[in-house]
Amino acid sequence: MGITIKGSGSEFILRLQEKAKLTAADKVYIGERQKARILRRTESGRDVNGSAFAEYSTGPFYWSPTGRLSRRSAAKAGEGKTKAAVNRYAKKLGAGKAVKGGAPYVSRSGLTICFPGGYRQFKQYLGRTGVDLRGAKAPHMLQAIQVKPTGDGVSLGIYGEQGALAAKHNAGRGVPKREFFGVSGRDKREAVADARARVREKLKSGLS
Predict the structure, then answer these.
(1) CA distance 25 to 149
(2) 52: which strand partners?
(3) How far is 96 from 100, CA to CA, in rounded Å?
(4) Where are the beta strands (DSSP E) in the chain?
(5) ∠ CA(70), CA(165), CA(171), 5° rounding?
(6) Does the predicted model carry a pTM greater than 0.70?
(7) Which of 121, 137, 190, 196 has the fewest C-beta atoms under 10 angstroms from its C-beta?
(8) Is residue 66 within 8 Å of 77, Cβ to Cβ?
(9) pLDDT tens column, 53-104
(10) Would you say 116 and 104 are in contact if contact means Cβ atoms under 8 Å apart?
């Protein structure tokens, strides 16, 4: 999954003096600036168009610090170790048996912790109240954004398993649509401004 920043502004810059052309390092700088914009926007709970993300689910959510395991896969990995890890994490949360009031509790299988209030409640226990698309543990898909210079610009991409997850969120396949990975009109204008600033720096410093 990837996006590419191009446009008439960049083409204008590339028509400047030969020595002022954008280098690979310049393009990476511009790409990193765009990456920062995506991260800031996503952290604030906004999509590429500036709209608020759809809220997280509120139905029961089952989670294990060792990964969401079935009893069969847990047995293969070591069910005792899985349950011990769940209990350690449950202790940190203050979670116990199912009680009235909706607090998290260790599931009957002992392989997961149940959050009756859903994924939203789970994220709240992690100390994050907004929809920021960050998973429980690093690395997550936002940390997987890669910046690469290209012949006529710069590309930002998320690849592999994290890229597939990002594509699901962007398109709303199996999850509410939360289009976080993209370039808005404002982003393009700011990217062009970043490129022009780099060129001005080159000219000011004697095109070094």
Answers:
(1) 8
(2) 46
(3) 12
(4) 2-5, 61-63, 105-106, 113-115, 146-150, 153-157
(5) 125
(6) yes
(7) 137
(8) yes
(9) 999 888 888 888 776 554 555 555 567 777 888 888 888 777 766 555 578 8
(10) yes
